[in-house]
Amino acid sequence: MLIPRQTVPGLSVETLSSGPFDLSKDGAEFATLVVFYRGLHCPICATYLKELGRLTPDFAEKGVKTIAISSDGQERTQQMADKVGHPDLRFGYDLPLAVAKEWGLYISTSRGTTSIGIEEPALFSEPGVFLVRPDGTLYFASVQTMPFVRPHFQEMIGALDFVQKNDYPARGEYTGAV
Question: Are 36 and 95 within 8 A, CB to CB?
Answer without folding.
Answer: yes
